[in-house]
């Protein structure tokens, strides 16, 4: 029995590649967030009262459908990450890696359920017991809610197994199970063992995440600045996705109870409140890490920087950079993608980029101090319209930005 050893990558290269794998589920999250935002806002009682024509049954059916479709990504967020990570990291047979990622994550949760059952904790429907042990239904399995971090760990382990065994050659009697077929098999075995360890070590991870969240949250209005500045500084290295995912989807971004469910992560809290019919307004402690903080830079600062670069260019060279600046401006304002503009001055004026990062972080703090509550992920004009302008005022008379 032999297996081909995968080419080695440095730790730096690995984290860069890992950050890029987050983009597939994050792109879907952004789209689903817009769908959920439009559907929820236009189907709310307050909007229908202000604009009666929206109460048309056909329109309401469409808006409700949009809300349902939009909630998909947030209901299956860990599953998407455990599939996307091996899919993105694998050099060959990406489909097999993705399939094994799902298998491994499901088996891990089954093993956790086995451990909890043997300890007498499960089965139970006692809400107090479930909450005390952080137990949720995951893929229909009662298991410890490891959130996005558990899915990331599962995805990385499965990727390592895939790279080690996807070319394995077994003895002739077992040849049918060799090659790519062996990857989900070994993944299920290994993740079954990992699932037995999760209940023992997860409290330590939970304490570490909570400690990071406490550090950021205890910084008050300075916390969003730390996050916003850190995200911009990590962006050139491709590591910003890791920080963003930590704040958006884990305890580091806060934990709240929404509609009777305990949810963790700034974006998860916002989306849960968005889809909860009894929620009036959004949590400032969650949205301060979301779209609103980016808007001063994305809708004001970077467009201003593009205009400055155009005017500072020599007159004979302006026509050469005009198209580049316009396309970068559209990508930033409409798509929330800032790299085309930021990378124009990152390498020629790195000190200016550091100043830009600090000002972006300051934008996060300013929006937090002003009590703005605009959620979602991109910080573009679409987020501003859908989650800012379209969010109607609550009975208190304050805008639910």
TrEMBL record:
GO biological process, one term: phosphoenolpyruvate-dependent sugar phosphotransferase system
Occurrences of domain PTS EIIC type-1 (ranges): 9-401
Domain of life: Bacteria
Keywords: Cell membrane, Membrane, Phosphotransferase system, Sugar transport, Transmembrane, Transmembrane helix, Transport
A GO-annotated cellular component: plasma membrane
Keyword Cell membrane part of the UniProt annotation: yes
GO molecular function per UniProt: protein-N(PI)-phosphohistidine-sugar phosphotransferase activity; protein-phosphocysteine-glucose phosphotransferase system transporter activity
UniProt-recorded name of the protein: PTS system maltose and glucose-specific transporter subunit IICB
Source species: Escherichia coli
């Amino acid at each position: 029995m032999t297996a081909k050893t995968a080419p080695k990558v440095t730790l730096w290269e690995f984290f860069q590649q890992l950050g890029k794998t987050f983009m597939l589920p994050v792109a879907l999250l952004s789209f689903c967030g817009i769908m959920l935002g439009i559907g929820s806002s236009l189907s709310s009682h307050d909007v229908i009262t202000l604009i009666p024509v929206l109460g048309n049954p056909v329109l309401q059916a469409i808006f409700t459908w949009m809300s349902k479709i939009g909630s998909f990504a947030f209901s299956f967020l860990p599953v998407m990450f455990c599939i996307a990570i091996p899919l993105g990291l694998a050099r060959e047979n990406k489909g097999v890696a993705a399939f094994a990622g799902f298998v491994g994550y499901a088996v891990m949760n089954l093993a956790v359920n086995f451990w909890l059952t043997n300890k007498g904790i499960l089965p139970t429907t006692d809400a107090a017991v479930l909450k005390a042990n952080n137990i949720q239904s995951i893929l229909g399995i009662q298991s410890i809610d490891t959130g996005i971090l558990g899915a990331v760990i599962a995805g990385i382990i499965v990727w390592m197994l895939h790279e080690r065994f996807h070319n394995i050659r077994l003895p002739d009697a077992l040849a049918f199970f060799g090659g790519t077929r062996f990857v989900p098999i070994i993944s299920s075995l290994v993740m079954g063992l990992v699932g037995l360890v999760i209940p023992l070590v997860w409290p330590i991870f939970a304490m570490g995440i909570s400690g990071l969240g406490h550090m950021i949250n205890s910084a008050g209005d300075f916390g969003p600045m730390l996050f916003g500045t850190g995200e911009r500084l990590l962006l050139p290295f491709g590591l910003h996705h890791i920080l963003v995912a930590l704040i958006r989807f884990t305890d580091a971004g806060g934990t709240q109870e929404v509609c009777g469910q305990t949810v963790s992560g700034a974006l998860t809290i916002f989306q849960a409140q968005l889809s909860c019919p009894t929620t009036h307004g959004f949590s400032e402690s969650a949205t301060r890490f979301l779209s609103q903080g980016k808007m001063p830079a994305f809708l004001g600062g970077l467009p201003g920087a593009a205009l400055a670069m155009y005017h500072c260019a020599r007159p004979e060279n302006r026509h050469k950079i005009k198209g580049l600046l316009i396309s970068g401006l559209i990508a930033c304002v409409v798509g929330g993608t800032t790299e085309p503009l930021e990378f124009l001055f990152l390498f020629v004026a790195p000190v200016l980029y550091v100043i830009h990062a600090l000002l972006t972080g300051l934008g996060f703090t300013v929006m937090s101090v002003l009590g703005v509550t605009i959620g979602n992920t991109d910080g573009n004009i679409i987020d501003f319209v859908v989650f800012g302008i379209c969010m109607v005022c609550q009975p208190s008379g304050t805008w639910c930005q």
